[in-house]
Amino acid sequence: MNYTPKQIVKELDKYIIGQTKAKRAVAIALRNRYRRSRLPAESREEITPKNIVMSGPTGVGKTEIARRLAKLVGSPFVKVEATKYTEVGYVGRDVESMVRDLVEVAVRMVKDNKKKEVEDKVMPIVENKLVDALFQNRRVTMVDVQREALFDELHSGKCEDEIVEIVVLETPKPMMAFGGNEITLGSMFEGLTPQKHKKKKMMVRHAREALLQEESDKVIDMDNVNEEAITLAEEQGIIFIDEIDKIIGKSQATNSADVSREGVQRDILPIVEGSTVPTKYGNVKTDFILFIAAGAFHVAKMEDMIPELQGRFPIRVELESLTKEDFKKILSTPKNAVTVQYSNLLKVDNINLIFKDDALDEIAEMAARENETSEDLGARRLHTIMESVLEDVSFNATGEHPMLDVVIDRTYVKNVFKDKEQKFDLKKYVL
Ligand SMILES: Nc1ncnc2c1ncn2[C@@H]1O[C@H](COP(=O)(O)OP(=O)(O)OP(=O)(O)O)[C@@H](O)[C@H]1O
Ligand SMILES: [Mg+2]
């Protein structure tokens, strides 16, 4: 599915408040990648990919925009912290691990899709095995068991929690290899050692999952999966490089930390420019991978980045600080808004939360104020405030009572913070 920039922005609007410029920029970049991929090879190579740098204070939506974008268009997505490549132990080509990680994500996505495709085909085999297992259970206590009748019982969902014994493949234990890269013994000796089957006891619901996994693995052609995954990563992949500003030293690097930071920029350069990275699934060309970098840029400036890399990030957007009005919208309008999250959580314990508009006003105002007077956490501030507001309810809800309406209004919020705010004021005087 290829979304137009307008469609993308419209979708992002459902989750992210404000930040119109950033949304437009990512939407355009994504579309441009698609446009470029449709060109004939010779003119395509003339056009350099246009990657994005987002700058802005913490908690205003940088990561969220990139993550939502990837989810929306079904792209494989990884997020890396640029600073991790400056750590001791990381040298040179290890920046390529971001591409390897991306391919891993793509493989998982393709595999999941294939699994869904073959599910109908393998389900009868799985159910047969489950019924066999149930049959064994019944025979212990009953003389006359009708195997056929057990299918109905299985379908009725009544025995989901029953413990059955099934035979499944043993999952190989992960092993730590040099350099901390986790590989599995299974993948090293794939095809060399026969895979071991093992009897295991588990609930029917889990047994179904395990058997489904095993049976679909048998019919899915892994070579195809790997090939598709590589194409998916190459054509649709998005790599989010966070804290990019932290690998920018002062111009004219003099101390060793700056030198190492500049080294990381040089290492990243070929990947962003377009190169081939070997992975265990095959070679991956990075030409069409979309890179989105982000950072606060409090100290370092974009202009201090090595020029070659700057050139690969021509689209620069600044995200704005969030206002009280934004906070109020963030509290209630996005599909996954915090108030919705808490309502859903507490419904499990028979509490029906009702947020009054004036409560949202109060919380938003409080967030804006606290961001100003103490550390600026952006929208994350809302989470800390909401946690306090609902602490009492969260602690006391047990689920043993009938459904209860709990109305959160301005007075409720104010009461929660009465004591806290006094302490807050006190602190100001003591300091
Ligand atoms: N504009 C916004 N609209 C809706 N929710 C937002 C917005 N900005 C931030 N949030 C919420 O705040 C949280 C933090 O946002 P995010 O992770 O995007 O911060 P960030 O800008 O990447 O900050 P940092 O520089 O610390 O990484 C997320 O849970 C997100 O849902
Ligand atoms: Mg972030």
Could you outline the blueprint of secondary structure elements for this entry?
Blueprint (H helix, E strand, L loop, with lengths): L4 H9 L6 H18 L3 H6 L5 E4 L6 H12 L3 E5 L15 H45 L5 H10 L6 E7 L4 E3 L5 E3 H4 L8 E7 H16 L2 H15 L1 E5 L13 H18 L2 E4 L2 E4 L4 E6 L11 H6 L2 E4 L5 H9 L5 H10 L3 E5 L1 H17 L6 H10 L1 H6 L7 E5 L1 H21 L1
Parallel strand pairs: 1-10, 1-11, 2-7, 7-10, 12-13
Antiparallel strand pairs: 3-6, 4-5, 8-9
The chain binds adenosine-5'-triphosphate and magnesium ion.
The site of adenosine-5'-triphosphate has 17 residues, from helix 4.
Can you walk through the features of this model?
There is one protein chain. With 431 residues, the chain is an alpha/beta fold. It folds into 3 domains: 5-104 and 233-318, Rossmann fold (3-Layer(aba) Sandwich), CATH 3.40.50.300; 109-227, no CATH class; 324-430, Helicase, Ruva Protein, domain 3 (Orthogonal Bundle), CATH 1.10.8. The chain is 54% helix and 14% strand. The protein has 17 helices and 13 strands. It has a 5-stranded parallel sheet, with helices on both faces. A two-stranded antiparallel ribbon has the order 3-6. Strand 4 (174-176) and strand 5 (182-184) form a beta hairpin. Helix 2 runs parallel beside helix 4 and helix 14 (357-373) packs parallel to helix 17. The chain is flat, with a radius of gyration of 27 Å. The protein starts with a helix and ends with a helix. The model is unreliable at 175-182 and 424-431 (pLDDT under 50). Bound molecules: adenosine-5'-triphosphate and magnesium ion.
